[in-house]
Amino acid sequence: MPEELESINAEVIAVYPNKIKVSVDKLEDFQLAEERLKVGSYLRVSDNDNAVMIAMIETFLIEVGVDKDGNPTKKYIIEANPLGMLRDGHFERGGDTISIPPKKVEPAKLEEIEKIYQESVDDNDKFTFATLAANENIEVPVDGNKFFNKHIAIIGSTGSGKSHTVAKVIQEAVKQKEKGYEGLNNSHIIIFDIHSEYKTAFPDANFLDINNLVLPYWLLNSDELQEMFIDTEANDHNQRNVFKEAVVENRKENFTGSDVDKEKIHFDSKLYFDINAVLKVARDKNEEQIDTGETYATGAKKGQPKLTQGSLYGRLTNFVNRLENKIGDKRLEFLLGEKSKTIKFEDTLKQFISYGDNKSNVTIIDLSGIPFEVLSITVSLISRILFEYGY
Prior knowledge:
Low-confidence stretches: 1-7
Structural class: alpha+beta
Number of helices: 13
Order of helices and strands: HEEEEEEEHEEHHEEHHHHEEHHHHEH
Largest sheet: 7 strands, antiparallel
Mean pLDDT: 85
Strand content: 25-35%
Shape: elongated
Helix content: 25-40%
């Protein structure tokens, strides 16, 4: 047998469209001094140093057999996923298939693994917040502009470190902006903090909670208004009709534009209305008595006008009670209080974005004190305000 073949420790024994199989004689000899091989480690497969395929180990298998003398033997089989080609010192994702059979399989060198990540993003666009799990000395940059313009999901079980990961990403973003990274110069990060756990991670952030947050309830859309003020489970059409009519009428009363524009106002118009005025309408409808035009002829009420109950008399009691409870609930002061009636839209936005004296790129909205029944409405309203402003 030729000496070259006798010295082979690892060789490709199968090539598939999406993976390769490598047979290793002695696993202890098939590794670099810096790293013990494991799932996630990198291999280099080549015929020459001008074109090297880099692959990532996915699985280990052990094949047990016997040699020609009947002694037991072990063969180690590695399955690896090809990532791309190192050609003349530059990494290209994808690329050519390997020649068959390739001559050489070795663990990838540290500088080769670094090239996979360092050359994947232009220097001006690099945003780095993580290192390679298999080797913490290798930084893994992403394109910051693309990263912050996409939907990103951080998923894991309870206690796995999701909140820590979010905090780390944002901390690095702020830190790199201060170092000159331009990707965040005109960006702002809003953190909806459900469990009050991010304040200590961002001591210089703009901080909002139930004590200083002010939201105008009249910017809620029609579905949110009904969810908040109407008992939807009761399926009471009287409540809905009275509420809608009162809101639309009060919006028209507070509108200062032309009569033509006033007639276009509807239930979903983003115009101010006084919730206390709506409550008064509901009370009046619930207590309404109508003069019949007749008078009592005898008795203690002789000469007094005869009254009959209105069509909604006593039918809106639950609705009135619900409105009274909502308006009187101190926990909802941030949404239904006097400041919510008078705050300007510009001032509403100032709370959330870097503006004026507030130069921080991060705003934390601590929602831990928000009553659960209005939590989704609160997040929805803030998100819509920010989206429409940004759009």
